[in-house]
Amino acid sequence: MKVVGARLPRYDGIGHVTGRTRYVDDVRVPGMLWAKALRSPVDHAGIRVDTSAAARIRGVHAVVTHEDVPRNVYGHLEALGIPGDEPLFAEDVVRYKGQPIALVAAEDEDLAAEAVEAIRVDYDERPALFDIRKAADTDAPKVHHWGNWYPHFEGEMDRRQIRKGDVDRAFDQADVIVSGVYRPAAIEHCPIEPQTGLAVPEPDGRLTIYSVTQALYFSMGVVAAHLEWPLNKLKFVGGTVGGGFGGKVDTAADTPAALAALKSGRPVKWRWTREEELLCSSTRAPWHMEIADAVTSDGWILGRRMLTLHDSGAYARFSPYGLTKHSFHHTGAYTIPNLHFDGYVVFTNRVPTTAMRGFGVTGLSFATELHVSRIANVLGIDPFELRLKNANRIGDTSPNRIALPDPSTVPTILDIADALGHELPAEYRTMTRDRRDGELLPEHLVAQLASTEEAH
Amino acid sequence: MHLIVNGVEREVDSAPLTPLLHVLREELGITSPKAGCQQGGCGSCTVLVGGEPRRSCLLAVATCEGFEVTTVEGLGTPERLAPLQAAFHEQYGAQCGFCTPGMLMASHALLERTPSPSRRDIESALAGHLCRCTGYVKIIAAVEAAARGDVASDQREPSLADADPSEPDVLIPGSPA
């Protein structure tokens, strides 16, 4: 083993410490124009746009709107069967503050900003929805004409649901029902490098795109889809990302810069300001999670009912995928045999939300861990012992019935107890992740077990 | 107008109120200072003006006339890293690298002024320099290592060729190697 366990230098470290690493904003191309966006100043409105005055300004080389996009509405996850709902540039409606309406490419950034000011937009403001808990109210503002939540889960269900075991029976058998509501907020990724794209028209008709993307081939597909181009007309240059954390999976700057480059025939760089990053780059989704657990007085969690509202912002982007992951993980690191989970991807007039470090799961772990501690508190049981008792073990199955081959809950909890100097009785201190038997295999956990072959 | 940038006198054509950051990046092609926020909030544009760390995004170039301006390009080269640069590399003080130039310049100014800084001195010198990757711990460790002189004398980039030759290569099935 030459690599595992070795202290290896970063392959890009010397470039970083000598200031020579070349980020997209550091690329210089002769004849390059700078772009600025017109973004919606309101949360929800019908719009009419007139760009003619901006286009007449000397030094302005392209004003791009939805009319310039071969395929304006495209979904980032169409390849996974999630239909597109988001326009690259707003057409007749804006659904969040900061939504792009037009992009201007001009000789310099100041002139582009001046031309943005010259674009006329009439805003016919509409009521806006911000609170996912009110999305189903009869008088709630409508974000989309079809409603306020995503309707295209398998079988055209309007929710991601999990049904496992017999949850009604579990609640009948419970000594105590422990309930909790958990509401982690949106988080802005806030990379120090803002979203930046540079598109360069090549003499052979191709486009070279310097991208900050975290997912280069994915972004290539998104640009090609909007342009209705084959992939072989795009050359992507990427791999150097000035911080992403999930926020640069969304292909935000590349396609508009590409369209402006095609329209002007010149290289175009679009670099977002910090205000734009904080106002309208995607964030981690806020969630509303309601959990009710059926528990016995000696600390077994027999069943869980859970409702999750996932705030998708104005468009779906990756949210149906994130909520699906969330549903598969909704018991956390613990085995709960009887489950009833419903999750909704709810639309609001907020910036679309996206992946961030443990997409769909991190905020959920906050909720599940707090909830386990809450149960321990209600029952008066040591929270370490409650965790170890209900911990995932080899042969247990996840909410979506995947056999767990090597779950790490038990050794992790034991390590934490050790690090904190938390005393445990011998029966817990010597616990392992091995298949359940004896006192750790009560009747209610038998049915959820995978067969021996499935769990290795 | 003239600036002395990394020891070289440069003529500048930009308007007097142009931010120094813009002059360095767009006119002189010196791209280590970054446009992270362009409002003095993140520290990624920090350069030394007359030896003092300054946010170049907020500084009109006219106020720098006749001053020495130092950027990371003036600290050392890949072939000959300054000890502080080597320490950032060895201690993993740079992750995505975007904040690193500002961190280096602020740390360099600190060590010039205070060769043996306390942890509090380092935290104070780097206050207002934002990093979203490292959690700062390794950055502070790098400055401490540089101050201690705890930097490998062999600054050649280590490689897998340094590994024990008696150890056989283990290739995954189907490896092109």
Tell me briefly what this model is:
The complex is a heterodimer of chains A (456) and B (177). Helix content of chain A is 23%, strand content 22%. With 456 residues, chain A is of the alpha+beta class.
Report what the structure shows.
- The complex is a heterodimer of chains A (456) and B (177).
- Chain A folds into 2 domains: 13-125 and 190-271, Aldehyde oxidase/xanthine dehydrogenase, a/b hammerhead (Aldehyde Oxidoreductase, domain 3); 154-186 and 283-445, Aldehyde oxidase/xanthine dehydrogenase, molybdopterin binding domain (Aldehyde Oxidoreductase, domain 4, 2-Layer Sandwich).
- In chain A, 23% of the residues lie in helices and 22% in strands.
- Chain A has 12 helices and 18 strands.
- In chain A, strand 10 and strand 11 (207-211) form a beta hairpin.
- The mean pLDDT of chain A is 96.
- Chain B is α+β, with helices and mostly antiparallel strands.
- Helix content of chain B is 28%, strand content 11%.
- Chain B has helices spanning 20-27, 83-90, 100-113, 119-125, 137-148; strands at 2-5, 8-11, 46-49, 52-55, 68-70.
- The radius of gyration of chain B is 19 Å and the shape is globular.
- Classes of the chains: A alpha+beta (456), B alpha+beta (177).
- The interface between A and B is large, with 36 and 47 residues.
Index terms:
A: about 450 residues; alpha+beta; Aldehyde Oxidoreductase, domain 3; Aldehyde Oxidoreductase, domain 4; 7-stranded mixed beta sheet; 5-stranded mixed beta sheet; 18 strands; B: about 180 residues; DNA polymerase, domain 1
Q: Any idea of the CATH class of the largest domain in chain A? A: Alpha Beta
Which sequence of SSEs, written as H and E, runs from N to C of chain A? HEEHEEEHEEHEEEEHEHEHEEEHEEHHHH
- C-alpha end-to-end distance of chain B: 56 Å
Question: Whole-number radius of gyration of chain A?
Answer: 26 Å
